[in-house]
Specification:
The chain is mainly alpha-helical. The protein is built from 14 helices and 4 strands. The chain has one domain. It has a two-stranded antiparallel ribbon. It has a two-stranded antiparallel sheet with strand order 2-3.
């Protein structure tokens, strides 16, 4: 399949180069372009004086508009390229910005290094860049837990899901998914402003990630040295997570590393009583973040191998 080969190319380019800072300084990033559009619609259509129902309808319109605009533009661009090696090359290059393979590793490694060196304050600063919980309330175990959870969840959202949709539909698939995911990250919140307006964005994101999240959990499990433990933990605990999708990769990693994840945490000064994943296990430490990164590397290698097989069939 041309699209599977193109997604492998996108993974390779991102794994080697990431998104260079010089390029970001010059043109930004396609996701930030989507973000500006979403922000503009949120500002103009999400009006405080409107009723709950009117804001929900406006949110549905905003979500569908962003997804349609991004997908149609990508489809039109892809339609200009004839099938074959040229399409594999060009679609792979165009899909590259929508894969977060390298940046995810770098952000989590930025937590692992100071944490292993005993620099808790440095680790808190680094983890604050990737999670929403209050970093000042986190001890070493809390920092490690936050970093590992972010790695597990974002492997699905940032790598596996966009690639899966790209394999299915090519450039419109990966761009459309990224529009969905960006909508959810910006407006899919249960706060006063977005409870109604962001409802559609959150629900669409849930559906788009149903299969990729479970696939990501399986990739982590089969890439680990504790396959039975990872599978058992995923099957037992994934449904306890507040997210219908994030619990699958997180529970798989918890079982693979023999640590407990999730649990109570502080958001915006309030304690969220989240359930534990793999509750009977020990708390993670700095070394476990490094082990999680190695597991991530093996899982992504396994994913690439599966894509290669698909491309050759």
């Amino acid at each position: 399949m041309d699209f599977a080969a193109a997604m492998i190319l996108a993974m390779v380019i991102d794994g080697v180069a990431g998104w260079p800072g010089a390029l970001y300084a010059r043109i930004g990033h396609p996701v930030t372009w989507l973000g500006r559009l979403i922000g503009a619609l949120d500002h103009r259509w999400n009006r405080d004086g409107d009723t709950f129902g009117a804001r929900r309808v406006a949110g549905v319109a905003a979500a569908l508009s962003v997804i349609a605009l991004a997908s149609v533009a990508a489809f039109a661009l892809q339609a200009l390229i004839s099938p074959g090696w040229l399409r594999i090359l060009l679609v792979g290059i165009l899909a590259w910005p929508f894969v977060a393979l390298r940046s995810l590793h770098e952000h989590v490694a930025a937590v692992a290094k100071p944490l292993q060196a005993g620099d808790v304050d440095g680790a808190r600063r680094a983890v604050s860049m990737i999670v929403g919980r209050d970093p000042t309330k986190l001890d070493e175990a809390g920092i490690a837990r936050a970093a590992i959870e972010s790695l597990a969840e974002n492997t699905s959202d940032g790598v596996v899901a966009p690639i899966v949709w790209g394999v299915l539909f090519g450039l419109p698939g990966i761009v459309g998914y990224k529009a969905i995911n960006t909508l959810d990250s910006m407006i899919g919140h249960r706060d006063a402003r977005h409870e109604a307006f962001g409802w559609a964005a959150a629900r669409i994101d849930d559906v788009a990630n149903l299969v990729p999240a479970r696939l990501t959990g399986l990739l982590f499990a089969f890439a680990s040295s504790r396959l039975p433990d990872a599978l058992a933990c995923m099957w037992r605990d994934a449904r306890h997570h507040r997210s219908i999708n994030a619990g699958w990769p997180e529970a798989a990693v918890a079982g693979a590393l023999s640590v407990r994840l999730c649990g109570p945490r502080v958001y915006d000064g309030e304690l969220a009583k989240e359930p534990w994943l793999n509750e009977a296990a020990r708390d993670p430490a700095g070394g476990d973040v490094a082990l999680a990164l190695k597991l991530y590397g093996r899982a992504m290698g396994l994913f690439a191998a599966l894509l290669l097989i698909l491309a050759l069939v």
